Amino acid sequence: MKTLKVLTSIALLTVALPFSQIDTVNDSNTVKAATKAGYPTSKYRKGAPKKFSNCKTVNKYYPYGITYNHVSYAKSLDRDKDKMACEAKDMVFKTWMAKN
């Protein structure tokens, strides 16, 4: 009976893992997701360029955008001056995103 409870707990934990812990595939290379699903990130993704010319290229590497703490952040990419560049529509900056 104890073994069944332990196995059930392990199964529930594997289902409940956040999306940021799941590997994603990008251009035939498997990389860790750089952000919580659906939110801009401040973390640099290995292999990504450090400078971007427009949001289309940013979103290839960071689909939810980047925050002002990100190495690639540029004021020219942040049109609405809300500390997030190339973010999804109607996204509102929260302080925890600065270290996401």
UniProtKB/TrEMBL annotation:
Residues 51-87 form the Excalibur calcium-binding domain. It comes from the Bacteria. Transmembrane segments: none annotated. InterPro entries: Excalibur_Ca-bd_domain. Pfam families: Excalibur (PF05901). Keywords: Signal. The keyword Translocase does not apply. Residues 1-21 form the signal peptide. This is Excalibur calcium-binding domain-containing protein. It comes from Macrococcoides goetzii. The lineage of its organism: Bacteria, Bacillati, Bacillota, Bacilli, Bacillales.
